[in-house]
Protein BCCIP homolog (Owenia fusiformis), 318 residues
Amino acid sequence: VAEVNMAAEKKRAVEKQMELLEKNEVPEEFEDDNDSSNDSEEFDDDVDSDAEAMEGINQEVNVEFEAREAQDSDFHGVRKLLQQLFLKASVNISDLTDTILTQNYVGSVIKQSDILEDDEEDMGDDDEVFGVISVVNITEKKDNESHKLIKKYVLDKCKECSDAQTYKTFEETLCGESQIGLLLSERFINIPPQIAPPMYDSLIKDIDKANKNKMKYNFDYYLMFIKTYRMTVYQGMSKKKKKGQGVLQTTYVNVEEEFFVEEADLKFEYSVEHEHDSVVDGKWDDEDNEMKPYRTVILLKADKLNTVVTKTRDEFSQ
């Protein structure tokens, strides 16, 4: 069971804004097109509204989540999470969801822990799927159409967006004799990374148990699709005074996945800017279209998984 504070990020953002207000500095979002301040009456209204927001945010809500075995009733919740990863990719998401539910002895879904009956109306549907983690063997059944579609999609994107040597290595690995596990870890965007270590620890135990039972989960590589955003950062400059060359910054939607990219044996990335990059219960503030959505595809040697999970545990365990 993981307990997380859902208010922390928003609280820090408002605290920063309040600090500017206390110094009589107008936050950038309050500036008009001519970089002038709003009149004092509007400014006072903003101060009052932010003070009210701070009062509400200071009332922290702790929500507990737990990993459960996936059930048939979780189909739509799991499919929705996979959709935010693959978007308009030529992947049979429904078939992939069915596979995850069929092999529910490996992996889990994340749901809210049991809550008191009086709190059910405030907390929403306690059977909602907030996250999913699993691994699918896409090598075992070579004639499986959904597995073939995943491999084809990876190779098509790699050929389009990477160099010839990277494509050749991806092709040899995916289409050769190596056992490939498609590692999937998705969750609501507002679920913090502290939930990741127990999710991966549980998955590793499930994989070990399956291998002891002579099941086909002894992988050579893990294939992962990782959600990222890119934006150009102009340090020390306001949005309306940008000049010169900025610094390209990559943001990981699931922040722990940066460790996977660092340890990856092979990788490439492609833009999904022209696809509708929807998320579950939250979205990035992309008002100025500065944050460009990408996907990073990696191959990670299976014997590195424990190393990556250890880094994740050291960084994010509560």
Observations:
- Residues 3-40, 277-289 have pLDDT under 50 and may be disordered.
- The first strand starts at residue 2 and ends at 5.
